[in-house]
Amino acid sequence: MRTYRKNPWKGRKTGLTNEFMAKLQLYFSYPFVWYALIVGLLIALCSSLLGVTLVLKRFSYIGDGLSHVAFGAMAIAGVLGLTNNMYVVLPITVISAVLLLRTGQNAKINGDAAIAMISVGALAVGYMLMNLFPSSANISGDVCTTLFGSTSILTLKPEDVILCIIMSVIVIAVFLLFYHKIFAVTFDENFIKAAGVKAEGYNLLIAIITALIIVLAMNLVGSLLISALIIFPALSAMRVFRSFRSVIICSAVISVICAGVGIFTSIMAGTPVGSTIVVTDIAVFFIFCIVSLFTRRKA
Amino acid sequence: MGNLLHCQDIVLGWEGSAVVSGLNFDITEGDYLCILGENGSGKSTLIKALLGLNKPMSGIMERPADMKAGDIGYLPQQNAIQRDFPASVQEIVLSGCLPKCGLRPFYKKEEKEMVRSTMERLGITDLAKRCYRELSGGQQQRVLIARALCAAQKVLLLDEPVTGLDPKAQLDLYDLIAELNRNGVTIIMVSHDFGAAIRYASHILHIGAHHQLFFGRTADYLKSETGRIFSESAHIQEESVERTENGID
């Protein structure tokens, strides 16, 4: 005689969990899933560190502008038939970042107008080049991938992962070493200049690591969604926390958690990686908005 | 008392065109110099020159040999970025020590100690953990003065420090500045506020449209023609303000 099962739901539940775990285990046996996770978390960390500074310096849109420049540069690299397009994309993006952050002080073309100009211009030129010199039969597919980074994070090669780790370590090290300088330059450039510190040098540094992060992040979320990765964790943290250090730490934690959750969800539910991460970031932003309503009232 | 700055016949300009010319003045240790002038008279160009960020187009500008860029503590006008900046008072005052760091990434114990004593001196110790953007205008100015004192202990350059403060906070700030001056800090204050200038300053430099109208002791300024014209107009202004307040006009 078979044993009588008291709770018919119990077995089904463990069955579901087992199925879930098995699926997870299966996915984690593939190296590309690990690569995606490592790269995704590192990029999220780097972009959130710098995001606070960029948002406060009124450069929220620089991520968008620079990523379009990187898109244009990728198209150029494709036309030139380079196997590793980093050699073209990285220098062009860094130069544009330096020029854009410089126009912030120079009043001939306003900062936001300059960003709009360069970003739309680069987008148009890039798309034009991709059409004139198609590298594959599926142009719209290529464009969509570059803009939304839909699958490229799941097709990373070990060298890409190593490159990403090296660049992230550089960005994080620079940020930690120059943390106090970055704070001072962001808070009050005039004072710092008057005190005999070369503020331009630090602005240049911020521009260069911004460009590095954007080129890195293109693989993860694509060039249209990079701004989200930079600004959402910073804005969420600024809702609740009141000192620069706590905002930076909180924004880094939010960004890494959202990237992790986003990547898992996209693997399990089959949604696009980039937009899933961004949607998670947006959800956290609204949660923090609500939390800030309560903390403000108390203060 | 050593001479801090000697300016003889200097011409200041921006992008190749002269903004203000014929400036002759001296700053001595312990002075309280107030620089008066209309908007567009070249005050901000002069501030840059005093800070060493901008060289005069011609004329002689002498400083003591041991004085370098950054030896003047600067209180800039507030900008839009600072109004919603998440930063604690401690973090901001500490950033005044940054020039001492050079390339060193972290602050030393002595620098943190200096921040603590400066905050105590300005009576903002209890604000250390507070968020800068939630303070009142007067408290914010105290924080920025503390930061400037961490950068340079001897000379302070204040750019319209009372702008946007309510009358009580203005008075408190002027008293604080006078107190610092009595304790040996040389004060250079750029201002619109004629009344405060003649009440507190030991010397006055008055710049008109593109040239110097007066430089000298405050007592002499009041006797000079420029001083008389301005004291009369300031008097009329004050009266009209009083009349508006009393609802006469």
Descriptive account of the structure:
The complex is a heterodimer of chains A (299) and B (249). In chain A, 81% of the residues lie in helices and 0% in strands. Chain A contains 13 helices and no strands. Chain A has two domains: 50-218, ABC transporter involved in vitamin B12 uptake, BtuC, CATH 1.10.3470; 232-299, no CATH class. In chain A, helix 2 packs antiparallel against helix 12, helix 3 (62-80) crosses helix 10 and helix 7 runs antiparallel to helix 10 (199-221). The longest helix of chain A has 26 residues, at 31-56. Chain B folds into two domains: 1-70 and 154-249, 3-Layer(aba) Sandwich (Rossmann fold); 72-153, 3-Layer(aba) Sandwich (Rossmann fold), CATH 3.40.50. Chain B is 41% helix and 24% strand. Chain B has helices spanning 43-51, 80-83, 89-94, 98-101, 109-121, 137-151, 167-182, 194-200, 218-223, 225-246, and strands spanning 3-14, 17-28, 32-37, 58-62, 72-75, 155-159, 186-191, 203-207, 212-217. The mean pLDDT of chain B is 83. Classes of the chains: A mainly alpha (299), B alpha/beta (249).
Task: Write a concise synopsis of the structure shown.
The complex is a heterodimer of chains A (299) and B (249). With 299 residues, chain A is mostly helical.
